[in-house]
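Continuing the series of single-chain predictions for the mutant panel. This is the parent chain; the variants come on the following pages.
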Amino acid sequence: MINIDLKGKKAFIVGIADDQGFGFEIAKTLFEAGAEIIIGTWTPLVNIFEMSWKNKKFDASRKLKDGSLFEYKKLYPIDAAFDYPEDVPKDVLENKRYKNQARYTISEVAENIKNDFGNIDILVHSLANSPEITKSLFETSRKGYLSALSASSYSFISLLSHFAPIMNKNSAALALSYIASTRAIPGYGGGMSTAKAALESDIKTLAFEVGRKFKIRLNCISAGPLKSRAAKAIGMIDNMINYSKANAPLQKELHAKEVANVATFLLSDLASAITGDTIFVDNGLHAMGMAIDSKSLEN
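Parent structure:
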């Protein structure tokens, strides 16, 4: 039997806000494989996350196969829209959800982790946000469009530029995408489809650049729909899940653990020759060219 052994590896997972998304499950699975887990949580949600963890609201989700609980080494507030302290506008600095937090720009978090842990081995980008997600792309403003790209795709470039220098050789990084990068998904708006397309394109170029310079592998998972808190903001997640179950080759609901298992493989030495790729983990929905539940097929 081939086992994934990540003992001695340090992993930084960016974008965990609760226990329902892919990021949490990836962190938990990496931990179960032996990795030390460092978490980056969006600055305004840090207090909520830490309080929920402390009050044992996540305990059921934290449970491992042997009955023990998933633990993390440290949590850092991070806002991936800002690279350096001077980038943070005054209104954000004075926002009550930011006032009690410090050193949450990408460069500062990288410095903190270097000082606290030394080099790391794994970087996971589980970030996506658009202030106009419920608007169609046609109705999206320039500001909303650029904000979606900044938070959801450029953030991966920035994370790599600051973290690659503190990652060991033969390390690995991973980002999460969605099929709207290459297919029209009505209702997935606010520039998010563009952001995912940019992210997947960037993975290829960055795999070459970062691979040659730092010996780091980069891959992407295009995951199927999951009923996470973040996905509920789209407003149509139930329809997306029902469509997938009706039309995918595997007629079942996707579980976060299935994505986490593939992520753990890609981040391990078992995938040592895989880089620059986007792997679909969506019950095969991406392979379909026809909606078999379409009314046009009815006699």
